[in-house]
Amino acid sequence: MLMIKGIIFDMDGVLFDTEPFYLRRREDFFKTKGIPIDHLNSKDFIGGNLQELWKELLGKNRDDAIVKAITTDYDAYKQAHKPPYQKLLITEVNSCLEQLKKQGIKLAVASNSKRQDVLLALETTQIKDYFEIILAREDVSRGKP
Asked: In whole angstroms, what is the distance from residue 116 CA to residue 137 CA?
């Protein structure tokens, strides 16, 4: 018999249905910069890191100064346009976490998102206390994919 001792959850797409929100936010941001992203598939953005897509987004205009400026602007834009995590929490998550905790299963979250975003999501939806370990982008030397 297999004995499960712990489960590691991803945040986006598993605990929260954030991808549609993230896609709209990216489209809106890049539109303000005059950078079209309609040539990319929405799946190009899922589970990865935006910095990996700079070549496709910026084409031959990709130099370090431009990338740094756009990254800084995008970070500020994301801070001003935070996801409504309470609305994006997948309905079954609370009951699932509660049942797993009652069974003594250790729970963790591992996300490619920034720590402040992971904590904001978990705290605003009041599910942070279920998790013994929370890993974010800053905790690894190389993130997904």
From this structure: 10
